[in-house]
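User: Fold this, then the next.

Assistant: Folding the first:
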Amino acid sequence: MIARSRKRRSGAKRIRKLQRPAWMQMDWLGEHKLTLPKLRINLWGGVLCAIMGLFGSAAVIASQHLLGDFQVSRIEVEGDLVHLRPGQVQTRLDELLLNQKTRSDLADIQAQLLSQPWISEARVRRTWPDGLQIEVIEQRPVARWNNTQFLGMQGELFQPIKQPLLALPSLAGPAGSEHRVFSQYERWKGQLAELGLELEQAQLDPALGWRLTLASGIEIELGRLELDQRLERFAKAWRKRLVTTPDIARVDLRYRHGLALTFESENNG
């Protein structure tokens, strides 16, 4: 049987294979396939940063506009106050703030508060739309200083117009010696407490040295030198004999090996 080859009919159409458009094909990127997403992310990141920058600038401008001069119509005072009353703080600020325009930095308000002797710290913030919230930290005195000032817990001196009657130790000394005097007072207070004695006053005189006064009224002259040895000498004498000796007014330890006593009858003549 003779094999005959079939011829394609002249009228038959050639079937063409459809291909994706070039812009949909990723093969042309080659080794840069992974670069395109990164470029897109960086591009969008830049756009977002630009938009956020514009909004941020607008927010700053808006805040400056909102925090411009404003009228204060209400003041709230908070804090654990003992010597001050919230009304006193409000009265002080009313003269400055109420019905007056206030600068947005609030620094002047804080300065006005800190100018009051009993205020140690002050925090001021604005409450919308026309109020101020003030947090006050009051001074906590730990001692009297030179009978005219108080020594605060943070070591600062302050002098209120009206001095309340407080059970505080009385310290005295030259200007700038308050920290030294208080430190020595605290140390000697503990040592004397072991003897059953309460230290009430400590005074530093540049010429005469240290003088201590007990709650019982007895004065202890320590002088300027060998302070620890002299106080130890007093402790030994107190335990051995002075604790039972009546009418002692003063114990002078400014001697090399001994002490001198002054009695109340001698002071009375």
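Now the next one, as you asked:
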Amino acid sequence: MAFSPIPAEIANPWLFLLLGSASAALASLAKGGFGGSIGLLAVPMMIFACGENAELAVGVMLPLLIATDYFAMISWWGQWELRPVWLLLPGALAGVGMGWVVLWAIQRLGAQRQTDQANAVLMLCIGAIAIAFVALQAVRAIRSRPMRFRPVLWQAVPIGAAAGLTSTLAHVGGPVVSMYLLPQGLPKGKFVATTVLYYWIGNQVKLVPYFALSLINPGSLGASLALMPAVVVGVVLGVFLHRRVGQKQFTGIVYVLLALAGAQLVFKAIQTLRAQ
């Protein structure tokens, strides 16, 4: 067969292209400003696209996310609020560092024991994070509307650390940042632009541990390149829908699907770990 950018460890290239493109489109749709929560489904979907290889999935996902960041920056240029981002960054850098250590420990586990076991641990982390975010969102939904506040550095640092850690492990720091930004009462467009700016910075910082740990490698970059057209489609569609369509009706469905995907990852991970 001719050269293919899809890594050899992916057993079903057509399933990878189908689910991987859907994952990239969902992530970029959210970055374009529509259905922000829907982007949380992207990483679990990418894991299934990669044959439940969580390490490959997060490596394929990061260049796609960075590409969406650049497209989204063009769409939302200059509309952001700078202060919340600067307050988040010190904690976010610390969180990325903590995530680096956790990923290194998972890889070390794979080197010392079995790669399947290390992959299961990473899947377990991602699945547990997905379920936890659904639970947090449910708590937010039943509480009264939060009072507006203007955070200071000591409040932003732990939130930034949580966002940096979860984003490094599973590319799902969005709910943490949203819970930080929403009470600040930013207009809808400014809210989206501020999250875009934060992740434009944060995702590029994550390149350091991802290259250092070889999570991004020639094989994963080829796979990312194969899925790049879906990023363009998703961002353009996200910007278009943000300005024309309400998104409340999608929220419940997204969180149900995310909970199911997270539960499936946790179940498969526990099965693998018990079999070792």
